[in-house]
Specification:
Structural class: alpha/beta
Strand order of the largest sheet: 2-3-4-1-5-6-7-8
Helix content: 40-55%
Keywords: Membrane, Transmembrane, Transmembrane helix
Distance between the termini: 40 Å
Radius of gyration: 30 Å
Strand content: 5-15%
Organism: Streptomyces virginiae
Protein name: Integral membrane protein
Largest sheet: 8 strands, mixed
Shape: globular
Length: 791
């Protein structure tokens, strides 16, 4: 109930939510003097200092809303440690694949296909688990195979004056035996696993463990017709993240244990001098490792997210026992490896080719299975706007696998190049065998992939140039009475053409994913059939083929090294430079909107803090004052605003209007995440919200119409004129800028539409009955569109 009497007219509030670029409270409110109303140093609501006591003086704001700003940019671009999140990029992409599934059939009589949706979720979680194993396996390749096995067992690395001299096999020291060197090297991937667990646990307590206003069920199996983002427990993923974190941590530790146990047990079985007890212990530990792997797979596959109500329970057995048991088993394996085995020498390379090949093959088969399930779901509920006709999720999953392979293989290639001096790893005459052959084949396919990308970019550029010429001829006609200016028309047409390239992004991603899948299959076949690196496999063949293979191998290795160097340099710069850190934060604003449903080591979901913040603020303010509220969201802020409105109870929703501008709700989120932002959910949002208006421009590469079909005129207004004036005039003496995605509030349409929304809310408040139908166009005449607009 309101704690103050209703005013006439009711007090109005405009809650501004910024987009991906972030903004300070002073920039959002247009006043350098601001005060924090509620929140903390991470995310808070601000007002102008003069408006701090607006509720006590409603007479000051007759006809005007009280402006407030919700600033959330520090949720993604806070301290310098956030630069470490760059290492989690493949995990983030894999998590996006979970949410990019096609929408299932809706309606009271529709079959939601829960088994297919559940299968899709299981496949994505298995794929995410393989990325964790791949990362830890790459760390094992560097620390165990290249350093502890190959380098430490060679006089090249352990000669006089070397820092690795204490590992020399002929030195007779404590660490001269291969098993003990492997145990020592295992500390590196074990520490990496611990770091991932620490980062996930730390962010888990700050994000997923924040209770929402209300409460959780599995969207994979839900059969109700309510939009998923309106479920009480959607933004509370505490249970699933804790469960997956335990499983992935155990998988990392078990990967390290397998990397140490496999060569140790193999030596004990081959050696006649080994004690029988060691061989028995080897069999026991490998049996326990297999049982641990089955348990991890069962934990990952058994349960998905629950969202029908906030689920405060934790799976104590999995969360507590699984990582601890894996760590105890790893310690036992290390102790077993440290047992003295005189006469054991390290030659060749560890069996990494088979391990990496199985991982790569499994990921490819998983992506193909994911595509089959996604296509099945899409055919049951076709959506022409969905990216790649329902295959957006599998395409994103393929990109995540490719990123994981390049990053992990690139590190191994660079370390091998550094250890063997000027030689090429795997080639004849190299002092060290080098990393697994498959990694060299992966590096060799990188130049062809980049060539394909360059050809695709050139093709899109040619198409854009042709479209620009066609648009330029019609631009001047949109501004009646203006003298045509060829240069001005070309600039405007160029901005529109560049913005339209966003609509071609799904096919670009499809081409990259398809080429990556084909080239990856070729690399796997080449590595398994020849057992040699590309340069050696082509030796003795046609001269052109031999030269091309050697050039592709060398160029790919250097390109991967350059990419890793740039990656590290960017991370270091972001650690020291707040501006660069803000740029990285923009990437996470788009990629980490979604909860961690598939990979617990992905960067945390900031919306699990931001959406409850906005929901609490809207419900609390309207309940205390009885006033009206317009939540005004730009770009990514519009997605947060829509998600928060979905969470409001119906009585509160009738007091709230939604104003979005430059919004990617349909253009990006609706295409890539149709199950959550497709035409069905957005139409339901239009039906549930008392009034909603969306502004967009043809020059905006991100924003676009929010609703398709006949409902669009009730919500969408656009394309707005951009620039506002074609040439110079007494009203615009200087050339008007092309705004694109920025400065929507400077457009006259913004103030007009906000006033229309407030008037509609006021009419409903005076009548003290719910509004009859969403949309400004009913019961209120919207202002005419300015010249050069349509819709």
């Amino acid at each position: 109930m309101p704690d103050r009497p209703h005013t006439d007219p009711p007090l109005a509030l405009e809650l501004l939510v910024h987009g991906v670029a972030g903004a300070s409270p002073a920039e959002l409110l247009g006043d350098p003097r601001t005060v924090r109303v509620t929140g903390d140093s991470t995310a808070a609501v601000f007002r102008r200092t003069d408006d701090a006591d607006a509720e006590a003086h409603p007479e000051r704001y007759a006809g005007l809303p009280v402006p407030e700003a919700y600033c959330w940019s520090r949720l993604t671009s806070g301290n310098g440690a956030r630069a470490l999140w760059l290492l989690l990029l493949p995990f983030m992409v894999a998590n996006l694949a979970h949410w990019a599934r096609p929408a299932g059939p809706t309606g009271p009589d529709a079959d939601p296909a829960p088994r297919a949706v559940r299968t899709y979720g299981v496949l994505v979680r298995v794929l995410a688990l393989s990325l964790t194993v791949l990362l830890i396996a790459a760390a094992c390749e560097v620390a165990l195979d290249l350093a502890a096995w190959q380098c430490a067992g060679s006089a090249t690395c352990t000669g006089p004056g070397s820092r690795l001299g204490f590992l020399a096999p002929d030195g007779g020291g404590r660490w001269s035996q291969p098993g003990r060197r492997l145990a020592l090297g295992a500390l590196v991937p074990t520490a990496l696993t611990g770091l991932l667990w620490f980062l996930s646990n730390r962010t888990w307590s700050a994000y997923e463990s924040q209770p929402p206003p209300a409460g959780a069920a599995d969207p994979d199996t839900a059969s109700d017709t309510a939009p998923a983002l309106g479920r009480p427990g959607f933004w509370y993923g505490r249970r699933i993240v804790a469960r997956l974190r335990a499983a992935h941590t155990a998988a990392g530790l078990l990967t390290v244990a397998v990397a140490v146990s496999a060569p140790t047990a193999a030596h004990d079985r081959r050696s006649t001098a080994a004690a029988p007890a060691l061989e028995v212990l080897g069999w026991i530990t490998q049996a326990l490792l297999a049982a641990g792997a089955v348990t991890v797979a069962w934990v990952v596959c058994r349960r998905g997210r629950s969202e029908d109500r906030p689920d405060h329970r934790l799976d104590r057995a999995a969360v507590s026992l699984l990582p601890g048991a894996a760590l105890a088993l790893l310690v036992a394996v290390l102790l077993h490896a440290c047992w003295s085995r005189p006469g054991w020498t390290s030659t060749g390379r560890l069996p990494g080719d088979f391990a990496f090949g199985v991982l790569m093959l499994g990921q490819g088969l998983c992506v193909l299975a994911l595509a089959v399930v996604a296509r099945y779901l899409y055919r049951r509920a076709p959506d022409p706007a969905a990216a790649l006709r329902g295959l957006g999720g599998p395409a994103v999953a393929m990109l995540g696998c490719a990123l994981g392979g390049v990053m992990s293989g690139g590190v191994a290639q660079r370390v091998a190049d550094w250890l063997d001096g000027g030689a090429t790893p795997g080639m004849a005459g190299a002092p060290l065998p080098g990393p697994p052959v498959l990694l060299s084949w992966q590096a060799a396919v990188l130049p062809p992939l980049l060539l394909v990308l360059a050809l695709l970019a050139a093709w899109f550029a040619v198409r854009a140039a042709r479209a620009r010429r066609g648009l330029a001829a019609a631009v001047a006609a949109e501004y009646p009475g203006e003298t045509p200016d060829t240069a001005r028309s070309r600039r405007i047409a160029g901005a529109r053409t560049a913005a339209a390239l966003t609509d071609s992004a799904p096919w670009f991603v499809a081409a990259v994913s398809g080429v990556t899948l084909v080239l990856g299959a070729g690399a796997l076949a080449g590595a398994w059939l020849t057992g040699r690196v590309p340069g050696e496999a082509a030796r003795g063949g046609p001269p052109l083929l031999e030269t091309a293979a050697r050039a592709a191998q060398d160029a790919g290795s250097w390109l991967i090294g350059l990419g890793i160097a740039l990656f590290v340099a960017w991370g270091r710069r972001a650690y020291r430079d707040p501006a660069a850190r803000r740029t990285i934060g923009i990437l996470w604003d788009v990629g980490t909107f979604w909860p961690r449903a598939a990979h617990p080591f992905a960067p945390p979901c900031y919306a699990e803090r931001a959406v409850p913040d906005l929901t609490w603020r809207m419900a609390g303010w309207t309940g205390r004052t009885g006033g009206r509220l317009v939540i005004s969201g730009h770009s990514q802020g519009s997605v947060l605003a829509a998600a928060a409105v979905w969470q409001l109870p119906p009585p509160v929703r009738r007091r709230v209007a939604l104003l979005t501008y430059g919004s990617p709700l349909a253009r990006l989120y609706g295409r890539w995440f149709p199950a959550y932002f497709g035409p069905g959910p957005l139409t339901a949002l239009h039906r549930d919200v008392d009034c909603w208006r969306n502004l967009w421009r043809a020059t905006d590469p991100i924003g676009g119409p929010a609703l398709p079909g006949p409902d669009s005129p009730e919500v969408d207004r656009g394309p707005l004129a951009d620039p506002l004036a074609y040439g110079r005039s007494t009203r615009h003496p200087l050339p008007a800028p092309i705004l694109g995605h920025a400065d929507y509030q400077a457009d006259p349409a913004f103030a007009a539409e906000r006033a229309a929304l407030l008037a509609r809310l006021e009419t409903a408040a005076r009548a003290e009955v719910p509004a009859q139908r969403p949309g400004v166009s009913k019961g209120l005449t919207a202002p005419a569109d300015p010249p050069g607009t349509a819709g």
